Amino acid sequence: MKFMNADENKFRERDQSLEAIVARLGVRAERGRRFAELTSLRVGGAIDWVVSPENEAEAAAVVHAMDQAGIGWRALGSGSNILADDGDHRYVVLSLKELKGELEFDGERVSVPAGYSLPRLCIDVSRRGLSGIEGLGGIPGTVGGALWMNAGAYGHEIGTVTETVRVAREGKVVEIPGTEVQWNYRHTSFKEGELLLGGTLRLTPDDPEKIRARMEDAKSRRMATQPHGSRSAGCFFKNPPAATVGTGKMIDEMGMKGARKGSAVISPVHANFIVTEEGANAADTLALAEEVRERVKREHGIELEYEVELWRANESKEDRTADVAEEKEPT
Ligand SMILES: Cc1cc2nc3c(=O)[nH]c(=O)nc-3n(C[C@H](O)[C@H](O)[C@H](O)COP(=O)(O)OP(=O)(O)OC[C@H]3O[C@@H](n4cnc5c(N)ncnc54)[C@H](O)[C@@H]3O)c2cc1C
Description:
8 helices, 21 strands, 331 residues, five-stranded antiparallel β-sheet, Uridine Diphospho-n-acetylenolpyruvylglucosamine Reductase, domain 1
């Protein structure tokens, strides 16, 4: 809350500056949205602005203008890997969901915009007889979100098939080779402030029926082991590298399935999922996650690392809005 009073002027200036940018670039900007509407956990507080570019050039231009004006922003795909806290998030959320565009096929390659749905992409390429991402078919979210954290499941990771990534640099769309990116376990070398606009995947030709069968197999395994139809963000914690059992099993063996704080519950189906029920808030969800971490630390000596991203309303970037510069005239 520290900036609510002292910095009101700063935010007024920021608002004017942003309004000028979006008017000049013709980009949609809205107020009054909440993370509870925009994330799969359905919790989280108010957002100052949601800006939604519709194509890659527009997205590159808008982040460049915001950077030049010192306006703090964060990229949001489908919000399926984010726990945003209940506070007022006084920055701009750059929503990529409208950046859907069309797929472009060239032999074994497919070029895809960041806002394209990952499950949709998996279906589309399988119909073309292109294999390599069928294990990812059940991962909700956008391609941009998947690239950002190297989404993976059932033996497939998006990074292994990514030939190039398009990123926003100095207002332009720049293509970088996938080999320049470090693709680690649910983590990449992309840095905060970097906007991913799309990518080109290089896949392997195979019989569409065989690909479909593998996709169905991954889907049934997912349905059998994970809660579906519930509000979650997927696995809450990463599997610790040195542990012999997975995090879900460890939490299950501690008898924590079904444990709750308010309306946030450790899923009775998969103990590494926290699901939220009607009326849940982020504070309860985080408190439950912290209780899990404390018990795992106490009983196993393991420090669990979050797989879900925690977005704090009051974290720094003084605090995501530097001193707002006047918007520069376009050159
Ligand atoms: C039921 C369920 C099951 C899941 N199963 C899996 C699984 O098996 N494997 C797995 O890996 N994940 C899984 N997840 C987690 C999640 O779906 C993936 O991490 C997904 O790739 C996130 O995509 P998103 O568009 O929702 O990203 P968001 O949650 O919106 O964002 C995640 C991060 O990516 C950044 N980001 C998003 N788009 C961009 C962009 N264009 N440019 C720069 N940064 C960007 C955001 O700033 C944020 O830091 C699951 C989630 C759910 C709800």
